[in-house]
Amino acid sequence: AQKVTQAQTEISVVEKEDVTLDCVYETRDTTYYLFWYKQPPSGELVFLIRRNSFDEQNEISGRYSWNFQKSTSSFNFTITASQVVDSAVYFCALSDILTGGGNKLTFGTGTQLKVEL
Amino acid sequence: DTGVSQDPRHKITKRGQNVTFRCDPISEHNRLYWYRQTLGQGPEFLTYFQNEAQLEKSRLLSDRFSAERPKGSFSTLEIQRTEQGDSAMYLCASSRGANEKLFFGSGTQLSVL
After folding, report:
1. What are the DSSP E strand ranges found in B8-107?
2. Do A104 and B45 lie within an 8 Å CB cutoff?
3. Residue A102: which of B55, B104, B105 has the nearest Cβ?
């Protein structure tokens, strides 16, 4: 069975600090996708990144970066120079291919990030 | 893209009543998903449509739950004889294709009293 573990329940940082959110996953599939979503207080899940299991290159997008290590089944997310607007719950998710090519995501329990002035 | 739209945003009902939620996906997205999220947890998959066909249902989806997507456009999720355990945020998402990113709506928060 698929499983995603986000061990950090809540993280508090001061603005401009760097912060890393951890994600560890379990799957028997050889092909899969990993995702990060952000959920601000408004409730809508906002897509941040999708990475397939064959691509272990780290990725940087502005202040965001992702470190995918298949050997340790981890897909960690770093925010550089955090800002108050980064405050949200962040979810890591793992895909499972469904009949017809659909995409069932197994989510972790989320990490609440609080960035304070 | 106008985004995934869900209605209503909030629903309060008494135990035993039936409720229905609506989801309008992004146009041209042929895949539509329903997820449920309880407090402090990540969303859990409920069911999935490709066009008008409901292709998969989670074991979480008891027989009191039914979802439809007539004509492959909007979808409805109905819960019959609601129970307090049904209280949750019901999220709808759509995607253009297989393994494409899911766009989520803002959800319908259901409170069963």
Report:
1. 10-13, 19-24, 31-37, 44-50, 53-57, 65-68, 75-79, 88-95, 103-104
2. yes
3. B55
Do A52 and B99 count as a contact with CB atoms less than 8 A apart? yes
Given a cut of 70, is residue A100 above it in pLDDT? no
DSSP three-state, residue B72? helix
Rounded CA separation A82/A63 (Å): 8
Question: pLDDT at position A99, please?
Answer: 62
B48-89 pLDDT, tens digit per residue, is 998 999 988 998 888 999 999 998 899 999 999 999 999 999
